[in-house]
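Quick check before the chapter quiz. The format below is the same one you will see on the exam, so make sure you can read both the input and the output lines.
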Amino acid sequence: MPPIGRRGFVAGAVLGAMGTGATGMGPAVGASGGGVRHGGRREGEFRGLWIATITNRDFPSRPGLTAAAQRAELVALLDLAVRRRMTAVVLQVRPSADALWPSPHEPWAECLTGVQGRDPGWDPLGTAVAEAHARGLELHAWCNPYRVANHADPARLAANHPVRLHPEWAVTYAGRLYYNPGLPEVRRFVQDAMLDAVRRYDVDALHWDDYFYPYPVAGQVFADDDAYRRYGQGFGSRADWRRHNTDLLVSEMSARIKEVRRSVSFGISPFGVWRNAATDPAGSDTRAGQSYDDQFADTRGWIRKRWIDYVIPQLYWNIGFAAADYAKLVPWWDETVRGTGVRLYLGEALYKVGDPAQPAAWRDPQELSRHVALAKRYPTVGGHCYFAAREAAADPLGALTAVLADDTPRGARRRR
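Here is the expected output.
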């Protein structure tokens, strides 16, 4: 089995070899793309909290709770965000091609009842939007574009699941099911499925994580030969074609969100390394996995073309980490967004704090405080987002409390 990555999800051999942890997820800022945003020590400062639902990581605590109990847990997490002086929560509402709202496109999420497709008796996304806004929090709807299941058996999916109805849409890779990004009909479908949340709910942003094509696993082949034969003519390589597919997903989604509701931000939380300088002179001084080459995700290109409103790179490494030094990546991302109008927030590995399996720096309660202090040197950094809610509640080593003590905002207000 590949090593466990950033959010407790399986991330792939590339990340494990680096000693990092990126998963599938990340979030944004005020949806208006300008104007009044949340207050803080600097105008527009963002402080976000990811709430993961896949495998019941943060919410619900276990599948099969009553609707009332689930609602109470969700409200408690929003109250936690307020106590931790967050300005936004990034709630995972489409974890595995299933939904935390009554979607006409995909079944109810398995994490709610333990049975994919079973009605939980309430509307988690609708409740989250209303209750977050009542507390002065932004609600960012976090979706994973292509993950179908953390297993390889279509028969375990709900009977009305799109992959049961269109098995040709799926690819099995490293024991898991994914939608095939090389099929135009798949790309349109997953956009439709996510846009349903934008149409029906007053979300502040639509947020994507770092999973586009899956993280590479040694000895495994992503079986898209047929799609490449049909649609890959004219490209210099399969890698170029795959990046083109991801570019289309992002650019088309960007345009469609603005057509549906212009006030909604579109943000992505990519793996923290675009490319290494040894591979590309425009890359960072790192020796790590590369999203451009591994997930076929040209994050830098999306920023330069202004297809996204904000970016939250997952900088889940400590200052001084040899392969991917936080202190070297912050200035790279600062330079990348400068002059583009794309808002920059930094993804923070709260989940690593106090973990004996991590480098020694993570057993220092001041490590995250040093991150925040360093980021203040760079004017484009508009805030931080913390992974994840479970650790925000437990506050290992008091690290989050220390961050708040050092960086107390003036208070949060709704952008409207």
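If your answer matched, good. The radius of gyration is 20 Å.
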